[in-house]
Amino acid sequence: VTSDGPRVPSWFPDSGAAPRTIDEALDLVADATLAVIGAPRDVASIEVRRAVERGLDVLLVGEGLSPEDAAIERGFAIARGRVVLIGGAIVDGVALGAASPIARGPLGIVAVDVPGAMEAAAAAHRSGVGASQILVIGDDDLAVGRGAGALAAIARLAADASTTAIAVVGAAEAQVARSLRHACAETGKPTVIVAFDEGARRGALWEAVATIDELPRALARLGVETPRGDVEAPPASMHKLGTIVGALASPTLVHEALTVWLAARLDVASDVPRPGVLPLDAGGHTLVSAMSGSERATWLRHWSARDDVAAILTDLSGTDLAGDVSDLLDAVRGASLSARGRGSLTVALRTDDAAASRLEAELRGLGVHVERSVAAAARRVRDLALGVPPPEASSSSLAGRPLSAIVLAAPDVAAQIARQGAPVLSLSWTAPAGGDARIARLVGLLR
Amino acid sequence: MLAAVPVWSGALRARHVIVNLGEREICLAGPPTTFDAATIGQRQAVVEAILFEGWADDEDAAHELAASGGVVLTSAHDRGGVAPAGIGVALSTPVLVFDDRTTMHRTWSAIDPSATSLAAARALEGPAERHARRVFSRDVLGPALDRAVDVAGSIELLPLLGRALHRGDELGVRIEAAQSLLVSELSRHLVRAGLPRSELSMVLDHLSESPSIFAAVARGAAKSIAAAASGVPGSTIVTAMAQGGRLFGVRLAGLGERWITTDLGPSSLVDADLGDRPIVECVGLGAFALPAAPAVLAAFRGVRAEVPEQVRAMRSITVASHPTWTIPLLDFEGVRVGIDIRRVVETGVSPVLSVEASDRAQLRTAPLDCFVAALEAFAVHIGVETPA
Q1: Contact assessment for residue A58 and residue A35, using Cβ atoms and an 8 Å cutoff
Q2: Which is deepest, A318, A430, B272, B386, by most CB within 10 Å?
Q3: CB-count burial class (<10 Å; 0-12, 13-18, 19+) for A189
């Protein structure tokens, strides 16, 4: 016995030894999100099922599965809210399998194979758009009667807060393509389908293009910021969820907010003159300068009575007179109440004095979003216009919690994940039933 | 299994415990067998039982009786109990009786009347000496134990065996702590039972010298616990492992009393017959609890480097940790309970079994093909596979 307690003899079983199975691994890392499976084809199904049953997404590397088995296991996973990825992926910024690390950004990519996915990521990157997640679903998924994997992957990206735009890359059978377009239209996020056919199509929130190199322009047309892209102007009407409006305490603050909104290719009307900005009477998205709190309160009351206004931006600072603050808060209360159910109010709280915390608490108590800078508040309201859920509304990771991988028969991938700093547990795996496929299949059936 | 609460309830002759025990029935350890298929050791057990019951006058006649089908051989497990290798349980054989307070299921465990539980040492005893010990067990030891347990009401085994684990027993080959604890417990009850002084002296001497009675208690407790899982539909948990001569067999909870067996081949004739001893591994004792027994571990140190990993691997094939049977050396982790054949077959990791040899403890691995066969049989049983 040492000061640290009983000492286990060194030759005795080491509790830290690698587990043999996914079940054992989950006893050690209960928060695991992904199983990377490199098992031989004839026994991989068993491991996929086990992983899915235990709530893990799956990335198959190595031999993978036959197309028939892949379809079966994909369906099994989808029914349980999980996805089966093939060959490679980027999950929460971590490159896995055949995928290469790329700059992080807002674009989530669903592709049938890794090269297609990486080509799309590279094209987007050239226009300044990084990737949030890359989900590779297998080149059989878009064949006749399938597409379930793509639909599940799109749904996952739609729910992923770190993904604000989506690209789907792969030629699909006609019926499957229709399902894809329908799914893309329902994501609430700008979505581009690279379908490799001649029939360009477009909906309110989605666009189908023929080639990968058209992806950046299509993203820009849908309102996605492409900082380095030589892209066309977006269509005039970009009202996704409704009109966004704001009243700020000075022209400088209005300029700052305009910079954010215009970068998103929004048409904005304002009383502050600036190239590209529409006159105030043009309506639509609007930003006005209103020095006093009472003036801003008046605008808030006006906008909160309008049905088409989805989100309101205003600010509150230490220089506002006490009476103005009180008036503005009254208006905020009213706006918050009237905006309930169809929009939100964001206040930039620009004060650092002792009253700031009290004000912030009071505002949050009214259900108001509070940011400590005009730019941050403007971005939040802009995202609402683009149909992007606010970051804190859901987790920023694909599985709802940070990537944590269990790797089975794929030591290279385990090393790859470790190099990128993500948690990974590699199993001391041997083929089920000693590699006897028939017995292994029985084991799978009996699970 | 984890809910079972086994208690030692008494010691009676087999005819009073085994339901409908036949007049010419002999229960043997291991899966069911026939006299023709039995090994020399099993046949010897049958012959000795016949002679002890008085069904024949000499060994030749006893052999003739058995060979002609004059006795019915059954598996002790099939008759609700366990037996050591080399012992045939018949009408007058004393057995220890156990009850599970949770299921109210009764099981039994046959006493090895030898002074030692070592098969090799037992083989050195002559027929007359073995007969005398059987008589002592039937006429003195059994009744004395029954009266002592009766005075005690019953003896709870979960806490007693748990304390033995904490005192260095793994309860397969090392049962010294359990022996000490039980002698201490039984002595006062034996005294209170009012036995004649000469009998009391003989019984106490036997209890102090022979560990076999405590091995029977450990096996009986294990059988009581395993029986609690028997007959659970759809369960792939092992409820019995046993060897009888060349046959090794397993029973599954979901297959009731059906045995799945494999022929161990000629090597089994050289190795010690395990009998029903592996029942202890089914409930996490024996080799599964090896880290609890430093004295046994010491036998492997420097000899078989793979032993620690073999024992650790039992985590991969079991489904639960026992809540009260814990191992101090492993930070009071519970012994692993519930061997799942799916995990055995999937991982290729077979249960390890402790074996008592003449010079030192040994570790043996259960035959994997028996578990594969059990998996196939189970798959057919529940309809996911068609019979071959």
Answers
A1: yes
A2: B272
A3: buried
* Residue B335 near chain A (CB below 8 Å): no
Nearest to A442 among B305, B311, B379 (CB): B379
**Residue A419 CB-half CA count within 13 A:** 11
Taking contacts as CB-CB distances below 8 angstroms, the residues of chain B near A430 are: 347-348
Q: What is the DSSP letter of B199?
A: H
Name the minimum distance, in Å, from the CA of A138 to any CA of chain B: 27
Residue with tokens 């090799």: B120
Whole-model pTM over 0.80:
no
Strand bridging mode A243-248 / A344-350: unpaired
CB pairs under 8 A between A and B: 72
The mean per-residue pLDDT over the stretch B147-152 comes to 95
pLDDT at A147 over 90: no
A434 touches chain B (CB under 8 A): yes
**Both tokens of residue A99?**
């995928």
pLDDT digits (tens, 9 = 90+) for B187-228: 999 999 988 998 999 999 988 888 888 999 999 999 999 999
Q: Identify each DSSP E strand in chain B by its residue range.
A: 6-13, 25-28, 72-75, 81-82, 94-100, 106-110, 155-156, 238-244, 247-252, 260-263, 318-327, 333-339, 352-356, 361-365
**Predicted pLDDT of residue A394:** 36
At residue B18, what are phi and psi to the nearest 5 degrees? -85, 120
Encode A21-51 in three state secondary structure.
CHHHHHHHCCCCCEEEECCCHHHHHHHHHHH
* Residue in A24, A46, A442 closest to B375 by CB: A442
d(CA B69, CA A435): 45
Q: How far is B380 from chain A, CA to nearest CA, in Å?
A: 10
Distance separating alpha carbons of residues B113 and A147, to the nearest angstrom: 71
* Residues A103-132: tens digit of each pLDDT: 888 999 999 888 888 888 888 888 888 899
B309 interfaces chain A, CB cutoff of 8 Å: yes
Which value does ipTM take for this structure? 0.82
pLDDT digits (tens, 9 = 90+) for A408-433: 999 999 998 988 888 899 888 888 88
Nearest to B86 by CA among B361, B356, B364: B356
CB contact, 8 Å: B388 with chain A? Answer: no
Two tokens at A139? Answer: 């080149």
pLDDT of residue A242: 73
Q: Which of B290, B346, B372, B386 to mutate to test the interface with A (most CBs of A within 10 A)?
A: B346
Q: Which residue has the tokens 């600010």?
A: A315
Q: How far apart are CA B80 and CA A154, in angstroms?
A: 58
The H or E element that residue A263 is part of is helix A251-263
| A58, containing H or E segment | strand A57-60
Q: Is the pLDDT of residue A238 over 50?
A: no
- Residues B237-243 have a mean pLDDT of 97
**CB-based contact, B346 to chain A, within 8 Å:** yes
Cβ atoms of A311 and A342 closer than 8 Å: no
Cβ-Cβ contacts under 8 Å, A433 against chain B: 345-346, 348, 372
Is B342 within 8 Å of A433 when comparing Cβ atoms?
A: no
User: Does residue A253 surpass a pLDDT of 50?
Assistant: yes
pLDDT at B26 over 90: yes
Q: Do A13 and B312 touch (CB under 8 A)?
A: yes
A76-90 pLDDT tens trace: 898 888 999 999 999
Q: State how far the Cα of A112 lies from the Cα of A93, in Å rounded to an integer.
A: 19
Residue A241 has pLDDT above 70, yes or no: no
Is B376 within 8 Å of A442 when comparing Cβ atoms?
yes
Q: How far apart are CA A243 and CA B364, in angstroms?
A: 76
Instruction: Identify all chain A residues contacting B305, using CB atoms and an 8 Å cutoff.
Output: 11
Q: How far apart are CA A412 and CA A132, in angstroms?
A: 23
